[in-house]
Amino acid sequence: MLVKLYAPLQPGSKEEIRLLEAVLYTATVFGPGLTTLLSSSEDKSSIIKELSTAAAVFARFKANYSYGLISEELGVPEKTVRKYLRIEDALSKAVSDVLKKLEAGNGFIEVDIPDVESYVVKLSSLERENNELRQRNQELETQLAELRGKLELVKKHLDEVYKML
């Protein structure tokens, strides 16, 4: 589902800063760059937390906050603020790219938010398949136990035959 979001490019109030921050965060979450980052990372929750911080940094920077004020308001080191604004990593690049698209659209950006209903249908299908596989696995384990029992009987019979010979 394509959604058109708006945020002020030069926020003048706390509310406008939060709006820009939310749009940067949302558009980055549903953008292609984050999927790549998440798939290559073990700690997905830290990436989401960093994304939140990066979006907050960029929003406050667009509101003409100084590095020190951004640092103080967000409770992060000034070094972190500078790192994001210098675009030294893939995460800050993803947020920066969203900001550029937002600027190119004069404050508007279209975000493709996946249809949740298709995921629900897929999940239901996978749950059914999982249950079928569990049932089949149980049947195979039962057959395996039976075969092991028969194998033990065969071994005993062979031992008896060897003793007779």
UniProtKB/TrEMBL annotation:
Residues 116-157 form a coiled coil. Keywords: Coiled coil. The keyword Coiled coil applies. This is Transcriptional regulators-like protein.
